[in-house]
Amino acid sequence: MILFFSLFILSLESFSCVVYSDQAVAGSLKTFSLRGLRAKPAYYEELQQIANFKRSNEKVLTVEDYGAKGGGVDDTMAFGKAWNAACSSDTPISLLIPKGNIYQLKPITFSGPCLSDISVMIMGTIEASSNPSDWNGKNQRIWILFNNVNNLLVLGGGTINGNGNIWWQKSCKVDKSQPCKDAPTALTFNACNGLTVESLNVINSQQIHIMFENSKNVIASSLSIVAPSNSPNTDGIHIARTQNITINQCTFATGDDCISIVGGSQDVHATNITCGPGHGISIGSLGAEGSTDQVLGVTIDTAHLIGTSNGVHIKTWQGGSGYAKNILFKNIKMSNVENPIIIDQNYCDSTKPCAQQKSAVQVSNVQYNNIMGTSASNFAINFNCSKSFPCSGIILQDINLIKNGGGSAKSFFANAMLTNIGTVIPTTS
Ligand SMILES: *[C@@H]1O[C@H](CO)[C@@H](O)[C@H](O)[C@H]1NC(C)=O
Ligand SMILES: *[C@@H]1O[C@H](CO)[C@@H](O)[C@H](O)[C@H]1NC(C)=O
Ligand SMILES: *[C@@H]1O[C@H](CO)[C@@H](O)[C@H](O)[C@H]1NC(C)=O
């Protein structure tokens, strides 16, 4: 009998979660336990915000119920337990990371598939362990990984801080005596179908801030991604082998590409983007080390690039194969941007010079429409295409780019088949 009871209590504890109903937010707080447990007064104030974020009928479970403490201790285990509870819930559930605390995490994987839809509400701050040895024996490219989770929603207004300083110092791009090694991506979404990531601040990632790979039907919106302009390889959003993704209302200021789109990506849309400092919006690099890459269907509509080292950039290595096609850049404002419009088929991000090669990733059907502003370099338009696979179907329509501070900029084109529509400044003839 005693044994029976203690087992019973244990099972209550391990499945504990707090349930907030919508009536609770409207007035009389109705907090009840799903299978036991307590509510914390501090959460009551957040109820309205939680109600705004959560999908209807979702229960709410918090990482603190699984032992997360915040304030400098390692919370990796508690987050893992909370995820397992959420992922095995047989009804839709929200996993809450409460406001006001800083939770420290070592590398962690949140794996699906899950029994029900999950929302992860990050209202507080999640910070990476600052000790690279926590990655010993682990994948150096991963800090937080969501793997194979469908209909996942990640949101909440909180902050994810990669604490990247120590990794930047050890980067071979910063300290030439160091070997070139991988560093973690703060947030990786792999094989997620029907994913929404919104209202988050992602800062100081060790390397790439957010990576979408092997995923489809993705919305990323209202994200603020910030790292120092001299932090190496800190791309904002990196998209690989992902189809049907929309990025909107996002602000980027980092040390590398604001958005980078690489092989296997299709139907990529970005709207209302602010980018800078950083390296601009890039398709590529593609075709590295003789690889075959395919990018099909990219629209960048409404963006402001400020002081970036490139504007809208397509970059491919010599010796690769595949294609980048059906690409539209429109309604883009450039403010003091180094290479506002650029296609570089001789891309070479290597310490050794890259040898001339015959094969190339074919670039075709690329439209630039309504692109205005100022160039920091002489060449506002630069199409440096492959001799053996010239860029084809390049359309420039209503372009007006002058040199920053006044004066006219120039255009350069090699092996590019161009059509001009409307006024194109600088001229390409
Ligand atoms: C693209 O993804 C969005 C967001 O998940 C979805 O609503 C839409 O139906 C998808 N479009 C296609 C063609 O699958
Ligand atoms: C564009 O995004 C900014 C935030 O980056 C937002 O304040 C603004 O309302 C958005 N504009 C439109 C037209 O969506
Ligand atoms: C075009 O590419 C070649 C090979 O990388 C490079 O030497 C040249 O400077 C480039 N031209 C311009 C105008 O960028």
From TrEMBL:
Name any Gene Ontology BP term: carbohydrate metabolic process
Q: What is its EC number?
A: 3.2.1.15
Subcellular location(s): the record lists: Secreted, Cell wall
The record's family statement is: Belongs to the glycosyl hydrolase 28 family.
Task: Name the catalysed reactions.
Answer: (1,4-alpha-D-galacturonosyl)n+m + H2O = (1,4-alpha-D-galacturonosyl)n + (1,4-alpha-D-galacturonosyl)m
Active-site residues, Swiss-Prot/TrEMBL: H279
Task: Decide whether keyword Hydrolase is in the record.
Answer: yes
Q: Which PANTHER family match?
A: PTHR31375
Tell me which species this is from.
Answer: Dendrobium nobile
Record's InterPro entries?
Answer: Glyco_hydro_28, Pectin_lyas_fold, Pectin_lyase_fold/virulence
Its name, as the record gives it, is endo-polygalacturonase
From the UniProt annotation, give the residues forming the signal peptide. Answer: 1-21
Q: What is the lineage of its organism?
A: Eukaryota, Viridiplantae, Streptophyta, Embryophyta, Tracheophyta
Q: Which GO terms describe its molecular function?
A: polygalacturonase activity
Which keywords does this Swiss-Prot/TrEMBL entry list? Cell wall, Cell wall biogenesis/degradation, Glycosidase, Hydrolase, Secreted, Signal
Q: Specify one Pfam family.
A: Glyco_hydro_28
